[in-house]
Amino acid sequence: MIYTLGLLHLQQEQFEAAREDFTRLIQQGQRKDEGHYYLGRIAEEQNDFQTAIAEFEKVGKRQYYLDSRARIASIYADLEGLERAQQYLAEFRAQLDSTDDVAQVYLIEGQLLHDQKLYVAAIDLYSEGLQKFPGHSDLLYARALMAEEIDRIDMLESDLRAILSNDPDNASALNALGYTLADHNFRIGEALVYIQRALEIRPDDPAVIDSMGWVQFRLGNYEQAEQYLRKAYGLLKDAEIGGHLVELFWAQGDHEGARKMMQEVLERFPDEEYLLELQRKFQQ
């Protein structure tokens, strides 16, 4: 009851009440890891970063263990720089025994590098992880997505195919491979096959539905593309899906519809580079 009340107060941004709830929970010896985790989240929200770090450090090896350490690393990156965050993660990684836990810490560090647009460094980091854990699907997938950032489509395709060789029904890899081929206008028929298979596995996934809409757009099937893209956007108000609808409307000659859609998604995502590029393109 106290835990549920604490979550409710936190959701309503009643931070003092939530802090009292989670403190009482810990004092009663109940769900102590969750209590310390959420006390850390509250401190983080209030920019009390030293308290946040102290609370996150108290979270034991259960549900929020890795996420709490990821948040500590993010705080260090913001306050003391990326090198300090990487030092912390390297020390933390050395304490772990589980292969999956170590791999997850590589992913956490890679995300920090991605956030600072250090894509090559992130690829090198994932490659280091893959030397230790050859064929690890999460590391392969992460390296594939990072490779796309620097137009290394060859690496992306190689890594995704490596995943699919061991797990042919991996919907994430199928979707990523199909979408990337379609997005770059490479082998569109092959891209369609991958996305169709991903959609069979995850028929309600807005990312996969968006991919199907995008490959139909590349094939010139605008009516089908619109059906899929509208459905995807209805499920998930995402900048990229909205941008795809903008491009579709413009290609159909519905410039007014494209402008209205652009206005809507820019209100939601005013700093999204893809949308800003589209806006510049259509203003020319």
CATH topology of the domain at 1-92: Serine Threonine Protein Phosphatase 5, Tetratricopeptide repeat
- Helix segment tally: 17
Low-confidence regions:
none
What is the helix content? over 70%
The share of residues in extended strands comes to under 5%
Distance between the termini: 59 Å
Report mean pLDDT, rounded to a whole number.
94
Order of helices and strands: HHHHHHHHHHHHHHHHH
* Tally of strands: 0
- Main pleated-sheet profile: none
Characterize the overall form. Answer: globular
Structural class: mainly alpha
| Broad CATH class of the domain at 1-92 | Mainly Alpha
Whole-number radius of gyration? 22 Å
CATH architecture label name of the domain at 1-92? Alpha Horseshoe
CATH superfamily of the domain at 1-92: Tetratricopeptide repeat domain
Task: Briefly characterize the structure.
This protein has 284 residues and is mainly alpha-helical. Among the domains are: 1-92, Serine Threonine Protein Phosphatase 5, Tetratricopeptide repeat, CATH 1.25.40.10; 96-167, Serine Threonine Protein Phosphatase 5, Tetratricopeptide repeat (Alpha Horseshoe). The protein is built from 17 helices and no strands.
Give the key terms:
single chain; Serine Threonine Protein Phosphatase 5, Tetratricopeptide repeat; 284 residues; mainly alpha; 79% helix; globular
List the helices and strands and how they pair.
Blueprint: H1 2-11, H2 15-27, H3 32-45, H4 49-57, H5 65-80, H6 82-94, H7 99-115, H8 119-132, H9 137-149, H10 153-166, H11 171-183, H12 188-201, H13 206-218, H14 222-235, H15 239-251, H16 255-268, H17 273-283
Helix pairs in contact: 1-2, 2-3, 3-4, 4-5, 5-6, 5-7, 6-7, 7-8, 7-9, 8-9, 9-10, 10-11, 11-12, 11-13, 12-13, 13-14, 14-15, 15-16
